[in-house]
Design brief:
This protein has 15 helices and 22 strands. With 457 residues, it is an alpha+beta fold. It has three domains: 99 residues, Rossmann fold (3-Layer(aba) Sandwich), CATH 3.40.50.20; 70 residues, ATP-grasp fold, A domain (Dna Ligase, domain 1), CATH 3.30.1490.20; 241 residues, D-amino Acid Aminotransferase, Chain A, domain 1. Bound molecules: ligand MV4.
Amino acid sequence: MFRKILIANRGEIALRILRACRDLRIPAVVAYSDVDRDSLPVRLADEAVCIGPAPAAKSYNNIPAVISAAMITGCDAVHPGYGFLAENAYLAEICQQVGLTFIGPRPEVIERMGNKAEARRVMREAGVPMLPGTQGTIATLGEARDFARHIGYPVVVKAVAGGGGRGMRVAMNDAELVRGLPMAQAEAEAAFGNGAVYMERYLLKPRHVEVQVLGDSYGNIVAIGERDCSLQRRHQKVVEEAPAPNLSRKTRENLLKMAVKGARAAGYTSAGTLEFLLDAEGRFYFMEMNTRIQVEHPITEETSRIDLLAWQIRVAAGERIAFKEDDLRPQGHSIECRITAEDAANDFMPAVGTVETYVAPGGPGVRVDSHLFGGYAIPPNYDSLLGKIIVWGKNRDEAIARMERALRETIITGVTNTIPFHSRIIADDAFKRGEVHTGFIPEFLDRVADREFDPPD
Ligand code: MV4
């Protein structure tokens, strides 16, 4: 096992990694930027080391700073969390070169899955279901039009270096493709320094269902269940749940089987996620693979009783996966609400300020992963996630009741946040029926009046 781990992240995930280190009895060092000096993970860590000023480019995304922080504190492993350098193949490569273990898959696997056209090729060759699409990148407009006519509209142009919806353009017809293709290429070039794009048939209002996988260094790969993450706003997840509601046993089994097949083809050796789109008929298609631990991992932990963070660390240290997929019948139902510092009544304008009072919810089946405390000044430099409320119930109905209770109990004053917005979603009849799809949040926002997101007195 590792001697000491550098946590190269901040906020709730830095705290989550620290908790896993404590459970495994591994000392941990938290790397922090100037503005995070007084944060909860820094206060609770065994050691902490400043890696630079507030802008992420100079601290959390600064590879030399992260590597030297690990070396001078005597760490032998680096946990990147999510975001920042979590899917940076160079960091994984340099770690290898200086004798540090990067807690994640091998650099070439990060690289391969980071190229979305290459990832598609790997998955197609492995026999994972996929929407009709271009083999590799699009060279010319003529090629794109021929292809679109062949598979039929609508189509979507996506950035090879993209993911998470950035650099994506939908075309309903030939004219839109003629206009959209150069726009997608220019956007991809500007955002990623790589203008390469590929194309596939576009599904209207699909569901987003993803599968958690774990691989070790001995060729063992298990699927630890799926999550429905369809409730998103501008490609940001808002509510996630496990298992995915209204999914037949047969579809679920097939989905998990294909995820293992895909992860095996990718040479996967860590915790990772394969994202799929699910159409109204229950057919699923590979979308992309994330080579990191994800924000929504707790709902899988709650339904599988597997500590994903601990296992991600254990397999990185060379341990074998000690459970079989057949022993992993998911228990009950889990839901997560991502609470952010945003004003839902004002087009989700980012909120700033200092947390005045913070009272976390509790009781049976409630878990809170958050770095908040009363007096915490939220730095404006990073994402707006304040924390996650996670509930578990013996079935979906009990999980929903517990989430309603948890949201009602939570007190966060001083900073506008999305608790009232989440309360309205959880109370929504369509949500209660499990009628979730990627158009849900936009339709919900059209349906309800903004004032309904005001906090109760
Ligand atoms: C799609 C799609 C429909 N058809 N691809 C958005 C994020 C990026 N990972 C891919 N995305 C989509 N790709 C095809 N061929 C619809 C989306 C999409 C979406 C996907 C998941 C969750 C929310 C979404 C919201 C809008 C569009």
